[in-house]
Design brief:
The protein has about 400 residues and is α/β, with parallel strands linked by helices. It has a domain of about 220 residues: Rossmann fold. The protein contains 12 helices and 11 strands. It has a 7-stranded mixed beta sheet with strand order 3-2-1-4-5-7-6, with helices on both faces. A 4-stranded antiparallel beta sheet has the order 9-8-10-11, with helices on one face. Helix 1 links the parallel strand 1 and strand 2. Helix 1 packs across helix 11, helix 3 packs antiparallel against helix 4 and helix 3 runs parallel beside helix 6. The protein is globular, with a radius of gyration of 22 Å.
């Protein structure tokens, strides 16, 4: 067996960035042209193809690890939720593929959403290749499917852990919860140990403690005067280098340093209203005002889960001329002063940039995103946070995380 690791549904390179840190040789399979262009611009080996139609034969005897973040239409509540009706068919496909029976064509004909069966594709590759280790990732609702995978893999002699991880527990400035499966047939595996905690308690008796979650402000350099100051210009940073987040974001930072109270705001129109990451429920339109429901998140917290509609997010500062309190209004409420004016009546807003969204996903600020602005936000929202991937891959492969990566986290 060679040292090649295959990443199915590879996207723009979240897993690949982590494999680069671990010095793991990989090739990613991805069909989306914009994501392929991004991967190649970042220097990641890529085969542009339809994973479901690509043969496993060329990889037999050559693969050490298999990674997959398959699409999750059968577990998505978005739109009309037709894919939800396909769940039994996906489970059937996984069962059949695990016994060497390819019934995908017949099952696909019965699917309400033709993308649903993609969640069964990793089993075809697992059955044919029997890699040394495995790492799968998806939204939390996919956990029942991952448990089916785990049962099959254990029967094949793999050690398996599956559960839900919060990216914030691994240094990602985002409370992104994801179902994860980790498996190995050569070592015992378990969940990667957290590196950060929501409630740091200070040093224990042994002088050890986990640092607190990384906030949006920390990740973006807000308040870090050694990175941005009033002398910074659009031409670069204080030392002449590239400005971390130029122009509007820089001015937002300077204002935030002076006056504080900036939040990340999401405009929740009916068709793109985000869902609670724990319950999956959509926010509702305000019955009192009939206005669009807004979600607001203080920059002193990690970001909520970055999604494909992140382009609709903006930085917002309450209009200080009408504020009667420093308190930030909770999601779904208009905090009105005694005079009847809204605390958020005349906010200053700047649209979140691709670079900022990517940093909240733990990508480098200069990652070479390709395609239209919409396609870039789509790639960012769909990607695995590289820092979360780093810890998952270390647990799966047994390769220790380099000190430089630990220090960066």
């Amino acid at each position: 067996m060679s040292d090649l690791n295959v990443d199915l549904f590879a996207g723009p390179g979240g897993w690949s960035e982590a494999m680069r840190e671990l010095a793991l040789r990989e090739v990613g399979l991805e069909w989306d042209t914009a994501a392929v262009r991004t991967r190649r611009a970042a220097g990641h080996a890529t085969i542009q193809c339809d994973v479901a139609a690509y043969a496993t034969e060329p990889f037999k005897g050559r693969v050490r690890g298999l990674i997959a973040s398959p699409p999750c239409q059968a577990w998505s509540r978005a739109g009309k939720g037709l894919g939800l009706q396909d769940q039994p068919l996906v489970h059937q496909a996984v069962h059949d593929l695990s016994t060497g029976r390819d019934t995908r064509a017949a099952l696909l004909a019965a699917c309400k959403d033709p993308r649903s069966l993609l969640a069964a594709e990793p089993m075809r590759w697992l059955y044919d290749l029997r890699p040394e280790w495995v790492a799968l990732e998806e939204v939390p609702d996919v956990l029942p499917l991952f448990r089916q995978y785990a049962e099959i893999l254990r029967a094949w002699g793999y050690s398996v852990w599956t559960g839900v991880l919060n990216a914030a527990d691994y240094g990602v400035p985002q409370t992104r919860r994801r179902a994860v499966l980790i498996a190995s047939r050569v070592r015992s595996v378990t969940a990667p140990p957290p590196t950060h905690t929501q409630h740091p308690m200070g040093d224990d008796l042994f002088g050890e403690s986990l640092p607190g979650w990384v906030t949006m402000a920390q990740a973006l350099g807000w308040g870090a005067t050694d990175r941005v100051s009033p002398t910074v210009t659009a031409g670069g940073g204080k030392t002449g280098g590239a400005e971390p987040f130029p122009t509007q974001a820089r001015q937002a930072l300077l204002d935030a340093q002076k006056r504080g109270a900036w939040v990340l705001r999401h405009n929740c129109a009916d068709r793109d209203r985000p869902r609670d990451p724990d319950t999956g429920r959509q926010a509702v339109r305000s019955a009192e005002t009939g206005d669009d429901f807004y979600l607001r998140f203080p920059t002193s917290d990690p970001s909520p889960a970055v999604t494909t509609n992140t382009g609709l997010w903006a930085w917002e500062r309450p209009a200080t001329t009408v504020c009667s309190t420093d308190r930030i209004a909770p999601p779904g409420h208009r905090d009105r002063s005694p005079g009847g004016e809204s605390q958020f009546a005349s906010p200053d807003t700047v649209r979140i940039t691709q670079a900022e969204a990517a940093v909240l996903q733990s990508f480098p600020a200069d990652y070479p995103w390709q395609g239209s602005k919409t396609k870039q936000f789509e790639q960012i929202g769909n990607a695995v946070p590289p820092l979360l991937a780093l810890h998952v891959l270390s647990a799966a492969s047994g390769v220790a995380i380099p000190e430089r990566a630990e220090e960066a986290a």
